[in-house]
């Protein structure tokens, strides 16, 4: 696979590749990045009050076990209790300063809190402790990607892939980088791999659909967007992407309906608002 060609004009919007992929109609949407996305590899039940209580009981019995704090910190993170998560990861690191996964977990919480400098430092430390830790490369790459440091992001993602990662985020995010630079065939291949690793997640379908659309393949794009909606009907970008296909086909009524649904889900989503203004009859 060839290296990505980047330029100073490469930019990211809402944590995604730039959306100027079509000449006639602006590309409606790309998938947003959220804690739910990054924590997809953590069991949903982990953030439950019951699970947190169970982990707290373990800590009461074994107060000097660093992995217990690391697990409860992950549960707090899944529940959105970031301050509590940080306290547990701090404790895990104090008990075991060589815990590379605790540093990576804390880095993720720092990123959610917008403290990217601290997140980057923790990812660097995790990698220094374990140079084969794919999760840390994937996490650091996302900080690089969202700050426009595309070459560094690509290098980290390729390192994770070389380590035979099974984390779909590595392929999905590399696909976004290829998509942003117009290398859509490479993007499609990476999104397809992400889908094979996480077939029930909608993000890979949305990403691949956008690159199909950029190549003029409306049928495959439409199929992917519809699959994304079927998997999770509460993502505004999926509906806006579907609307874009309707719009390109000249069906303004259906396009407006899908754009309206996207705005119901996210009233601040600009591509849906602009699309609805174009298609409202």
From TrEMBL:
<dbReference type="InterPro" id="IPR019734">
    <property type="entry name" value="TPR_rpt"/>
</dbReference>
<feature type="repeat" description="TPR">
    <location>
        <begin position="168"/>
        <end position="201"/>
    </location>
</feature>
<feature type="repeat" description="TPR">
    <location>
        <begin position="66"/>
        <end position="99"/>
    </location>
</feature>
<keyword id="KW-0802">TPR repeat</keyword>
<dbReference type="Pfam" id="PF13371">
    <property type="entry name" value="TPR_9"/>
</dbReference>
<dbReference type="InterPro" id="IPR050498">
    <property type="entry name" value="Ycf3"/>
</dbReference>
<keyword id="KW-0732">Signal</keyword>
<feature type="repeat" description="TPR">
    <location>
        <begin position="134"/>
        <end position="167"/>
    </location>
</feature>
<feature type="repeat" description="TPR">
    <location>
        <begin position="236"/>
        <end position="269"/>
    </location>
</feature>
<feature type="signal peptide">
    <location>
        <begin position="1"/>
        <end position="28"/>
    </location>
</feature>
<feature type="repeat" description="TPR">
    <location>
        <begin position="100"/>
        <end position="133"/>
    </location>
</feature>
<dbReference type="InterPro" id="IPR011990">
    <property type="entry name" value="TPR-like_helical_dom_sf"/>
</dbReference>
<dbReference type="Pfam" id="PF13181">
    <property type="entry name" value="TPR_8"/>
</dbReference>
<protein>
    <submittedName>
        <fullName>Uncharacterized protein</fullName>
    </submittedName>
</protein>
<feature type="repeat" description="TPR">
    <location>
        <begin position="202"/>
        <end position="235"/>
    </location>
</feature>
<dbReference type="Pfam" id="PF00515">
    <property type="entry name" value="TPR_1"/>
</dbReference>
<keyword id="KW-0677">Repeat</keyword>
């Amino acid at each position: 696979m060839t290296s990505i060609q980047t330029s100073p004009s490469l930019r990211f919007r809402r944590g995604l590749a730039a959306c100027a992929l079509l000449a006639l109609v602006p590309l409606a949407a790309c998938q947003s990045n959220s804690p739910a996305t990054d924590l997809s590899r953590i069991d949903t039940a982990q953030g439950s009050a019951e699970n947190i209580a169970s982990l707290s009981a373990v800590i009461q019995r074994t107060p000097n076990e660093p992995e217990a704090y690391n697990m409860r910190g992950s549960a707090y993170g899944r529940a959105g209790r970031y301050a509590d998560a940080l306290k547990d990861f701090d404790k895990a690191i104090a008990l075991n300063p060589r815990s590379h996964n605790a540093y990576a977990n804390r880095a993720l919480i720092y990123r959610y809190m917008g403290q990217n400098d601290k997140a980057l430092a923790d990812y660097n430390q995790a990698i220094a402790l374990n140079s084969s830790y794919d999760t840390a490369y994937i996490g650091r790459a996302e900080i690089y990607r969202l700050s426009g440091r595309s070459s560094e992001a690509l290098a980290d993602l390729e390192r994770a892939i070389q380590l035979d990662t099974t984390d779909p985020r590595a392929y999905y995010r590399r696909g976004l980088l290829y998509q942003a630079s117009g290398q859509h065939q490479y993007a499609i291949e990476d999104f397809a791999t992400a889908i094979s690793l996480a077939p029930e997640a909608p993000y890979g379908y949305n990403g691949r659909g956008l690159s199909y659309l950029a190549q003029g393949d409306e049928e495959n794009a439409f199929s992917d967007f519809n699959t994304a909606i079927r998997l999770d009907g509460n993502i505004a970008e999926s509906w806006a992407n579907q609307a874009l296909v309707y719009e390109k086909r000249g069906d303004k009524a259906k396009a407006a309906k899908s754009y309206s649904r996207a705005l119901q889900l996210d009233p601040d989503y600009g591509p849906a608002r602009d699309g609805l203004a174009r298609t409202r009859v």
